[in-house]
């Protein structure tokens, strides 16, 4: 029986700017998994995700997405994934519908299917009243929702989210979390960075803690507790303990 | 801190910001370059005395009283300078109310907003006037050197012109805001700023073509008709010319009038500055402009989706609208000239070709920056399943198609009169536009479309190369029609310039 490839497999991923940002990182994310990547500011989370998405070139290492070598065949890898950053990538002069039409066109999605999906997505994110308004007057939360809808409209198998809940109100955040959980149930894989540890604790199947460009701990919440000998502690306490140890080691 | 002290502190703060902004514009934001830039500017200013001498050296002996045939072109030149300063002032005043950088901080502070905005506008007046004084220095130096120290009074005229331009800019913006509202004021002010200087020159050219069948704008200014309509020598209209020639009393009156005008405008409109800024802010927050209504999503290839997006954004770009309007305005005189020359065999029609080629190169440079560098969702496009080459090609196609749409009708018009000239013009447009686009490609930077105004700061070299390339191809096209052998030399020189630009470009790596 043929084994299913990992949604994401990183081997020895390395990136150096003026200092080492990602240090020979090995990481595996399984298919249909909700994976949360947490770490302090400057730990290398965003750089890692940008290299996975093809927005930065690694100095060394390999990136495989559903078995596709993303460095050798970036177009095939990009076809199956989407990335949403904390700074929404949208156009002020386009309406949400026009934006989603453009994104669907870039991913080569059949117009009939993408139009229906676009409507459903925007309505589910509470943007029904703004479908035909240009994005230039939108709040940050609304822009974030449009960007998220753009990432989902082409039905990616791997969704990468860098701080997706930044700027969202409580109701919108709940909508987004619900949408992401639905996607995972439907067979998608989600990798998310967040500083809101409660979200990682509640939503993620597994959590990776990254510090100084290296993965310092990984597993389910209970596995992390076991690994570190803390019973019944919150992720926040675990995180602080892990990052403290790493900082002292450095 | 007392109120007066706080306001003088704010004035210093504004002047410091203006200075740093100017320095950043000149150095491209690299502080290490400051010494180099200052040295370069001093050398440039010294060298500028040579062309200044070539252009106006022969007027150094002009003295009061001027006869009307001399006074009209002199006054018209000062008026042209005024329109250019008004254009810059309008753009700056609009920014005071619409740029959100520190407005929220200022408006939430306990400072008196009418005073704060008045200081900010005064700082702009000083900046606009200071820049005009700098630019006019080589010309005034030449006139003073050959015609005597009396010409130094021209500095006072430049200052008066700058202050009055600022007063008019404040009045126009405030009135527009009241009459057409915050939504349209910004766009209309931008369009006025873009076309006001060119509009005056073009109006003179149109009048010259219609009356005398020549493209020379001086034809109408030095004509007997203009002299017959001009007021007498003691008219206020000649004050700037008389003051520039060293009439101290007139200069004092001119400066006093300008300062009074600015003071009056400020006292009328200053109490409303805070409302204007708040209105602009509220407009930005509540802006709900409609896009295309619910229509079916369109299919097609991925590059097609990219091209469609680029066209939609270009159509909705206010800067582009004003620039295209300006380019089209520049084409009005040649088009009229073409129409006038339709029935005769005048060789002067050749003059149209370089104008069109130059305009195409300049417009293509702006379009190329907007499509290639001004990508608001660069990460989105970079993560799409397209090769970078496909993205670049689609964007270049958009530039060339847009240039084709604007210039093809004019080339078609020429083809009716002179097919060979039309072919040369078409080739010039294509090569000029392609060269400007290629230069933008070599110097591409990742930027927001809204940063277009500062696009030249990212690379002075790209801006200069783009201008020289457009000029070079315009000259080559004109020479192809007039002196073909010289066209080969001009074409090779332009190619060498583009090759040198490539050598120096970051795109080479």
How widely separated are the two ends of chain A? 45 Å
Number of strands of chain A: 10
Calculate the mean pLDDT score of chain A and round it: 89
Point out poorly predicted stretches of chain A. none
Strand count, sense and barrel status of the largest sheet of chain A are: 6 strands, mixed
Element string of chain A (H = helix, E = strand): EEEHEEHEHHHEHEHEEHH
Most residues in contact: chain pair: A-B, 42 and 40 residues
What is the percentage of strand-forming residues of chain A?
15-25%
Q: How many structurally independent domains of chain B?
A: 2
Number of helices of chain A: 9
Write structural notes for this entry.
The complex is a heterodimer of chains A (250) and B (509). The model of chain A has no long low-confidence stretch (mean pLDDT 89). Chain A is built from nine helices and ten strands. Chain A has a domain at 88-155. Chain A is of the alpha/beta class and 250 residues long. The longest helix of chain A has 16 residues, at 170-185. In chain A, the strands form two sheets. A six-stranded mixed sheet of chain A has the order 6-7-8-3-9-10, with helices on both faces. In chain A, strands 2-1-4-5 form a four-stranded antiparallel sheet. The model of chain B has no long low-confidence stretch (mean pLDDT 81). Chain B has helices at residues 3-27, 34-56, 68-98, 103-107, 113-147, 153-212, 218-221, 224-229, 239-244, 248-286, 302-315, 318-341, 352-373, 378-383, 388-417, 419-442, 455-458, 460-482, 484-504. In chain B, 79% of the residues lie in helices and 0% in strands. Chain B has two domains: 60-283, no CATH class; 302-508, no CATH class. Chain B has 509 residues and is mainly α. Chain B is built from 19 helices and no strands. Chain B is globular, with a radius of gyration of 25 Å. The A-B interface holds A 53-55, 75-76, 78-79, 81-83, 85, 89-95, 97-98, 101-108, 110-112, 114-115, 118, 130-134, 136-137, 150 and B 284-294, 296-302, 304-306, 308-309, 312-313, 316-317, 376-387, 450.
